Amino acid sequence: MSTGYRRTLTIAALNFAALVGVSHAARTQDLQISTATTSRWEAAPWPFTRDAWPQGLAVRCTGAECGAGVEVYLRPKLGFCNCATGVSDDFEVDNVSDLDLMSDQFAPVEAGAPVTFGHFTGRARAYQFPRANQSPRAAFAVALASGCDLIVAGASGESRTEVETAVRAFLSSPRTQRWIETSLGLR
């Protein structure tokens, strides 16, 4: 093989590798931005330290519907769900919801309830984070099952009504449903 031919193959291979890397990065960035970009949602960097699960999608609602702002953190947890029953009780929501990443102290406000978003079923539950010399911060968690996999969403804001309304709207949106399906390998 001639030196010129080897160099041409090497350059072609490097260009291909670069194209694949750029394509993957662009697809990931586009997916994150398109999921979080509506008139009231803004993408944010994942703020939590690395753990056993992949980083997820962090968004912030800053529209009038969200008052002082609602933060939502959404991510998959593959292979972490009871394959037969899905998310069946509040204990599971408490343990998988990632609220412990947002505050080392969180307390449920009341019993959770079954929820459905798109093709996914699970449970949701309201919580609060205590704060010194202030009223507690509202929090809301959703755990959705797909076979043996989970999608968990944790959110916080000043008002329970604003947090729950924002999370329900976000999880119901077609863009978020596509992100969930892609994250679970269903697309």
Quick rundown:
This protein is α+β, with helices and mostly antiparallel strands. Helix content is 36%, strand content 31%.
Give the helix level as a range of percent: 25-40%
Compute the number of helices: 5
Rg calculated over all Cα atoms: 20 Å
- Give the helices and strands as they follow along the chain: HEEEHHEEEEEHH
Number of strands: 8
Identify low-pLDDT runs: 3-39
Note the gap between the termini: 42 Å
Biggest sheet statistics: 8 strands, antiparallel
CATH architecture of the largest domain: 3-Layer(aba) Sandwich
β-strand percent reads 25-35%
Structural class: alpha+beta
Q: What's the average pLDDT?
A: 81
User: Shape, please?
Assistant: globular
Number of domains: 2
Q: Return the CATH topology of the largest domain.
A: Protein Transport Mog1p, Chain A
